[in-house]
Write a structure and sequence with these properties.
single chain; about 350 residues; alpha/beta; Nucleotidyltransferase, domain 5; 3 domains; 5-stranded mixed sheet
Length: about 350
């Protein structure tokens, strides 16, 4: 006998619907803690019963998956954005949502998501954490520049970047007075220093972890692809074999069309601009797509991102390093007979 269970989970309770073919639907309300969920699932598990559970993806859906998988025969973690059009209803309650999940699970129509292992989930979180620190550093830099410009400093005291050591020291001395803007500048410089220290720590951590991933060497053999892009692609790929082809792979990362993990798109775009400067084949591809029209720059760079993903997928599948000549041939630069 098969039982299909839908969990509609919120912070205060879990609404449950249990569907068994030929029997009346069973509803229940349990606590939102793991213990209550496990206790309920164990109560439904009897000899000869096959349990299937569905719930919507959330920030802790991976944690739930790790803890509940031993209590059921199958777990489906659902993408709610794709499920709404499949099973529309005029009414919306927690019980209805739970039943919707159970019904769709029973007929095999739930749009599920891949659940990575705990290590991969934490790897992804650390990548996002670093990205947020980088954004904070950029924000503080802009605020520092705004403060010094507001009092007439449009150029740094020393040539080069505002953020080299000599200019940082100069801004520290400038902020030593008692005016409001000097207090603000001093605090912003403290924040800038703190964020840079945090950025260095998390970067060192990620660099060390990336060394344990042999596939990173493959991806970084592409001109313009550095450790940050390689780790993001690997962390969110989590097994290239789960993708049917290049189009599905590109679509997952939001290149065809734009959705998916934004951190990978952001890093891929940066890598694409570097790649067209370092790789003759990718530069040729970029120029061919742009076709001499400067207005097509964005279209061309997105095409390079898509090409990079196709190349990366092929490299991860075959285990081969980047082959400039092969890419040139695919881009039409080298005659097949050569």
């Amino acid at each position: 006998m098969d039982k299909y269970i839908g969990f509609d989970i919120d912070s205060k309770k879990v609404s449950v619907c249990v569907i068994v073919s030929g029997k009346k639907d069973v509803y229940a309300t349990i606590g939102p803690d793991i213990g209550s969920m496990k206790k309920f699932l164990v109560s439904q598990k009897k000899d000869g019963v096959c349990l299937a559970l569905a719930y919507e993806v959330s920030g802790y859906s991976g944690y739930l998956h790790d803890n509940l998988c031993e209590c059921v025969d199958r777990i489906a973690v659902v993408n709610p954005c794709k499920a709404t059009w499949i099973y529309r209803t005029a009414k919306k309650t927690d019980r209805i949502d739970a039943r919707k999940l159970a019904v769709l699970l029973s007929i095999g129509e739930l749009p599920t998501v891949h659940v990575p292992s705990k290590d991969v989930r934490q790897w992804r979180q650390t990548i996002l954490h670093r990205r947020n620190i980088v954004r904070s550093v950029c924000s503080v830099k802009n605020r520092i520049r705004a403060v010094v410009k507001s009092v007439g400093y449009f150029k740094a005291a020393h040539k080069g970047s505002w953020w080299k050591r000599l200019n940082i020291e100069w801004m520290r001395k400038t902020a030593s007075g008692r005016e409001f803007w000097q207090m603000q500048l001093g605090q912003l410089l403290d924040e800038y220093q703190f964020l840079n220290e945090q950025l260095e720590k998390v970067t060192d951590y990620l660099d060390g972890y990336l060394k344990s991933k042999p596939a990173a060497v493959l991806l970084m053999s592409i001109g313009g692809v550095g450790p940050r892009t390689a780790e993001a692609v690997l962390a969110y790929t989590d097994g290239v074999e789960r993708f049917g082809g290049s189009r599905e792979y590109s679509s997952y990362f939001g290149v065809v069309p734009k959705h998916g993990p934004s951190v990978v798109r952001w890093l891929l775009c940066e890598a694409a601009w570097k790649s067209i400067r370092k790789s003759a084949s990718l530069k040729h591809f970029y120029e061919r797509v742009m076709n001499g029209d400067i207005k097509r720059k964005k279209i061309a760079i997105v095409a390079v991102c898509r090409k990079l993903l196709s190349i990366m997928r092929a490299m991860l599948t075959t285990g081969e390093l980047f082959n400039e000549e092969l890419v040139l041939r695919h881009c039409g630069e080298i005659d097949k007979a050569a």
